[in-house]
Amino acid sequence: MSPQAQSHFDPTRVPHLLGSFAPVTDEVDVVELSVVGRIPPSLDGLYVRNGPNPRFTPIGSYLYPIDGDGMLHGVWLSEGRARYRNRFVRTPGLVAEERAGRALWGGLESFILPGPDAVGPELANDFKDLPDINVVSHAGRLLALAESACPFRMGDGLETVGREDFGGALPVGITAHPKIDPVSGEMVVFCYMTEAPYLTWSVIDPTGAVPRKATPIEGVDEPMMIHDMALTKRFVILVLAPVFIDLEAAMSGGSFLSWRPERGTRVALIPRDGGKLRWASDEAFWLWHTVNAYDDGPDGDGEVVLEYVQWSRLTVGGDPASYSADPVRSNLVRARIDPATGSMVRTELDDSRVEFPRVDDRRIGRKHRLVALATEIGDVDLLPGEYNALRWYDTQTDTARIWHAGDLSVGEPVFAPEPGDHSDERGYWLTFATDRTDGTSWFLIIPAEDPTAGPVARVRIPVRVPLGLHGAWLPN
Ligand SMILES: [Fe+2]
């Protein structure tokens, strides 16, 4: 965003601050939610979701989905009943803004940083924490996650405990999309940064200790943005799309993200045992989110299979002049990568416009069957990042099932398995939804066995839940 554009920044015209995306300011508790249908009594736990929700009207710029304060929305289910609570992730920057009664930091592309007179010496002239993207539970800690920065630890009541650096072992932070190995219980993370070594990976064990400290990834000699990762039994997988962080351009009024398709996209296969890094490369594509990955072959020592939602180009920030004229596409794609030769073959699995892919988390790093996605159907005027249907792609039959949500805009579907069942077909898909006609919000419980039938329960949330990003099901 140019300085001229900044001076004309008008938050009332930013689509992601309006309609179903408009932030809310109240923190509420509702103990008995009304339900249309029946909440399965076997669902006992917390569904929690994060998303950008600026506490005060943004100044300077607003770069969705990265900018904005984090807000957690929780729905606790027990014995067929539901309660709701939402809380801001109260970072030191947000606390300072609440004291001032207004935004003090500008959006990411405006470089408005308050000085010591406004916020004290510790926060002055630095960026604000933005733990607004994801929420996971690991080592008994509920973490609100930012884009490659320290997460914030949250309490059982969604109150903010403080910045989490894992006993000082990971002071620079971690990705917003860590992957937890369902067998070992390890949480594998990466972190990109604007200074050398630019990209590292680490392992946080089930106790919260860090047996692998930040390990530089060789062959990365400039700052890049990488949003998500994947894991197999053998490899950590990072997709390095040609999105470079250009601080010089940002300081002189340009965007800090630069899309350079001529550089192509590289995939790093990082052996989890510490072995030699392998690379594959192909023509440029961008991805926000992986679906999952696994090691193929009879002994799990063959090709690496990576599924992800492939975007034809960067879709945030950047210089629009560097975009091709083609409309942006986002499709479910499978890449087969030979670790021995570095060859990569990509196949489009489904031509629907999709995002927010999730599998049963118990399948992470192993072959999965179902991929749940948010999608768009019909001739409806939806904003970028807004979806009106859910889609389930079956990797065994190469078929898809769909549930059209009508006037509801739906978010990322998260799987809650039926307790005691180990297939990814028995359980429920959970998401928030907001009605575009009247702004009412709902928590939806959709049966995995027949998702096309729609929710078995629509739980009314008596306040609006803005469309957001990623969530988790945390069974008791
Ligand atoms: Fe994400």
TrEMBL record:
Required co-factors: Fe(2+)
Details of cofactor binding: Binds 1 Fe(2+) ion per subunit.
Keywords of the record: Dioxygenase, Iron, Metal-binding, Oxidoreductase
InterPro entries per UniProt: Carotenoid_Oase (IPR004294)
Entry superkingdom: Bacteria
EC nos: 1.13.11.-
Molecular function in Gene Ontology: dioxygenase activity
Recorded family membership: Belongs to the carotenoid oxygenase family.
Protein name, per record: Dioxygenase
